[in-house]
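User: Study the fold:
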Amino acid sequence: MRLVARSILVCLSVIALTASVALARPDVVLHLSGATVQRTASGEKLVPLDPAVKLKAGEIVRWTIVGNNKGSDPALHFTPVDKIPAGTAYIAGTATITGGRPEFSLDEGKTWSPKPMVVIQSPAGPVSRPADPSSFTNIRWIADKSLAPKASARFSFEVRVK
């Protein structure tokens, strides 16, 4: 009987611990927005995208992701990911993050690298060289630390319409 009582007590403790862990979680909400970038002599102007207006070749679009942790625990390993939109090309050096680094994929997110490389055939044999940023298919940001409860983080990148 003592063994049964102890087993029940252990099971109840595990259930109570599981329930408290389930309630104390990060709750990250991501918001994506886009704006065309119009550069002028006095700086730049961002014009929010209008779904009714078709983008023209050569236009630059800045995509911004804002992550808000509405939960009560930090979001560990917070790593937002975005796809480079079809019909556009990533513009080198435009990925922004404070306290972290961007990584890029050439294969729809199967592999990642801060500086993707490609192998080309030369007369001397295969040679590795940096991939053209226009060939990037996806982007992700690796944060240096977790996203604290009630905190937010902003990430952005620019593309040129083909």
Notes: The longest strand covers residues 28-40.
